[in-house]
Design goal:
This protein is 29% helix and 19% strand. It is an alpha/beta fold and 718 residues long. The radius of gyration is 27 Å and the shape is globular.
């Protein structure tokens, strides 16, 4: 057995997957362990997960001092203080820096950076450094490299070149985590632990032989025997029946459509494997430190492979990375949805925006720069919807590497730039909001969202590839946002009694227990709006019996005899005086208790229902059986909201966001108004406007492109 250094032995006791370490030299640690790192936290003493709190909103950033000479560090810290930066993420991609060779640890530079930040009153968000293995690791252990669906290996040179199921990577990464946690777990400047980075951003699905064996273990645990797996996957179709688990593979590239149940379970497995890496790193940290632990999620339109509803309970604070996606029709609406979803993952508690950008990113086909004022608007949009910290990637724009054209707080143009001036303005506004932290957003509307539905509903061979799950979720959310109502995003099966209205867009996959929660909610007096292709299959992607909309058929009082997708570019008029059109999707609906509310005005289904409403128990269930155009969908949403007694925020609209954060205990409420339009708007408000420091009563004017935040005055007694 090779000789192992002290930190490798510690890590071995933490690992969840065991491998025999390869023969190697004794580890040499460079740098004397500082006094603050000597005490090891006994797990028996540790109070368990530590909640993250801040008594005022924080401005933060991702910092990569390893890219810069030491003389730059002091200038950076001085400018951070000027901008109001209070939380800095370091060592996110630090593995090669602190372990330059398999037998050598070098903490000298990281020691200096942490001490420098602490001396200047800046808190540290310390990365474990495990996001990307250094070249020596993948050279020595090429078996950790991920394999794509087509069987080809993905090589080093980018980032995240590791297989989530690799026991070699797991053990070596945990050894690094234990070394970092042992050294810095008691550092006085440490505010937060940052596990890895955007787990699964590039390596979420690995199809190698190691992953195949891990997948088989996962399936054994899920199904117990291969007969149950065959039943769940419907393997009687196309002669796919398995005789043993050893015959099962990941859904590698096939000549025809792969088994949908196999693909769905592989997504579940892959999300669980990455979560296991987070949990293993977090356990190694918690054995050495009682500082809160998180990882930066990617609650965005382009992350489809991790089920964050499963991940959220394992984070001490929810943290998210979000960048405006200009490939979408309405990037600002997608930002708002993702912020509300992040708050949902946090169960209504404040959360951290771990990364966003001051300007353009570097990874979209055309990287659009933010317009004047847009930096402030996009930042405050997250703040309004529950964030208690706003952090940017990154602090200083890189001069080399794949992200050298990604914007930063300190851009290539330096402190004479408009970007720097907007950063200073954001820092000033956050310092003027000491009593905002801890306030929460409340909503009368819940929108049901499921990551499993992205995997199942968007699978090949569906009725129309013009329709995607997230597209329909975004459309429903955009209509609610334009109507000016607050929205909580919740998973299927979540308690619903606190909401006046529940919106269920395109919920293709639903369990019987989840459908029962919705049915009971409506029967007790709730209102629900369900959109087409919902309730179709169960958790095994097996069609619910009795016809569409399956699990929701009795709730909605309709049956669907056949779906009639529309070709690209084809629209059909709705009948009736209010106008409107449908596109992409229609259905041949049969009324079984519901009444028609809107009819199709032309096409082969002319005269058939496009929207229905059903009185179910003491409540009301609406069904949109067609893909309504934005104006028709907004009109329907406004009618449904009115019937449910949901009051919109005065002054809100498609280009004007109005959001409230409410004090949990004593303290003021806050009103956020974001004007995305090109003209001044007026909303009712009474209190003190924070951005300008002016008194407001009875109305607030918000110039084009501006944001305003009102510390609301107490309501006068009636």
């Amino acid at each position: 057995m090779p000789r192992l250094c002290w930190w490798q032995f510690c890590a071995r006791s933490q690992a969840t997957d065991r491998v025999a370490l390869r023969e190697g030299a004794t580890m040499v640690q460079v740098g004397t362990p500082p006094v603050w790192s000597r005490r090891r936290v006994d797990p028996a003493e540790a109070p368990g997960r530590t909640p993250w709190r801040t008594d005022h909103p924080l401005l933060g950033c991702d910092y990569n001092p390893e890219q810069w000479p030491r003389e730059v560090w002091h200038e950076d810290v001085r400018l951070m203080r000027e901008a109001g930066v209070e939380l800095v993420a370091v060592n996110v991609f630090g593995w090669a820096e602190i372990q330059p060779a398999p037998d050598r640890l070098d903490f000298d530079r990281l020691d200096e950076v942490l001490d420098l930040l602490h001396e200047h009153g800046i808190g540290v968000n310390l990365g474990t450094g495990t996001a990307s293995p250094p070249p020596w690791l993948t050279t020595a252990y090429p078996e950790v490299l991920p394999v794509a669906e087509d069987g080809t290996t993905r090589w080093p040179g980018g980032r995240q070149a590791w297989c989530p199921s690799s026991p070699v990577f797991r053990e070596l990464s945990l050894a690094l985590v234990d070394a970092v946690a042992s050294r810095y777990g008691q550092h006085p400047g440490l505010r937060l632990w940052h596990v890895s980075n955007e787990l699964g951003g590039h390596n979420s699905l690995c199809y190698c032989d190691v992953s195949a064996e891990a997948f088989r273990r996962w399936l054994r645990a899920r199904y117990g025997d291969v007969a149950a797996l065959n039943e769940a996957w419907g393997t009687s179709f196309w002669s796919q029946r398995y005789g043993s688990f050893e015959e099962v593979l990941p859904p590698r590239l096939t000549l025809s459509t792969p088994n949908p149940g196999q693909a769905l379970d592989f997504h579940r497995f892959s999300s669980d494997e990455l979560l296991a890496q987070h949990r293993a790193e977090a356990a190694a940290i918690r054995a050495r430190s009682d500082v809160p632990v998180t990882t930066n999620l990617m609650v965005t339109a382009h992350q489809r492979d991790m089920d964050y509803w499963d991940w959220a309970p394992h984070l001490d604070v929810i943290a998210n990375d979000h960048y405006l996606d200009h490939r979408l029709a309405d990037p600002a609406a997608e930002l708002a949805f993702c912020a509300d979803l992040t708050r949902g993952l946090a169960q209504g508690r404040p959360w951290i925006l771990m990364e966003h950008s001051t300007g353009a990113v570097n990874w979209q086909p055309v990287n659009i720069a933010k317009q004047p004022g847009e930096l402030l608007r996009s930042s405050v949009a997250h703040l309004a919807r529950g964030a208690d910290a706003l952090c940017f990637f990154q602090w200083r724009a890189s001069r080399q590497g794949a992200e050298k054209f990604h914007s930063a707080m300190l851009p290539h143009a330096g402190t004479g730039s408009a970007t720097w001036r907007e950063v200073l303005e954001l820092g000033r506004i956050l310092r003027a909001l000491p009593d905002l932290a801890g306030t929460q957003v409340s909503a009368d509307v819940a929108l049901v969202f499921s990551y499993e539905n992205q995997w199942a509903a968007d699978a090949p061979n569906r009725p129309s590839e013009l329709v995607t799950h997230l597209q329909q979720v975004h459309q429903a959310y955009a209509a609610l946002r334009a109507a000016g109502v607050g929205v909580d995003v919740v998973p299927p099966g979540a308690p619903l009694e606190d909401y006046r209205l529940v919106v269920v867009p395109h919920l293709y996959l639903v369990r019987d227990t989840e459908a029962a929660v919705l049915q009971d909610y409506v029967a007790a007096g709730g209102h629900v709006l369900v959109t087409f292709f919902s309730g179709i299959v169960d958790e095994d992607d097996r069609v619910h019996p009795g016809g569409y909309p399956g699990a929701f058929r009795d709730l909605l009082g309709v049956g669907v005899e056949e779906v009639h997708p529309l070709p690209e570019g084809v629209t059909l008029r709705l009948a009736g005086g209010t106008g409107g059109t449908v596109r992409r999707w229609t259905e041949q609906v049969r009324l079984t208790g519901a009444r028609a509310h809107r009819l199709l005005g032309e096409g082969p289904l002319a005269g058939r229902p496009a929207v229905t409403v059903h009185e179910h128990g003491a409540g009301r269930a609406w069904y949109a059986a067609a893909d309504l155009d934005p104006e028709a969908q907004r009109a329907l949403v406004e009618e449904v909201l009115a019937g449910a007694g949901v009051q919109p925020e005065p002054g809100a609209g498609p280009l004007v966001e109005v959001v409230r954060r409410h004090a949990v205990g004593p303290g003021p409420d806050f009103l956020f108004v974001l004007n995305h339009g090109d003209r001044t708007v007026t909303v009712p408000a009474r209190g003190t406007e924070v951005c300008t420091g002016t008194a407001v009563d009875p109305t607030l004017e918000v110039p084009a492109g501006a944001v305003r935040i009102v510390r609301l005055a107490d309501e006068e007694p009636s």
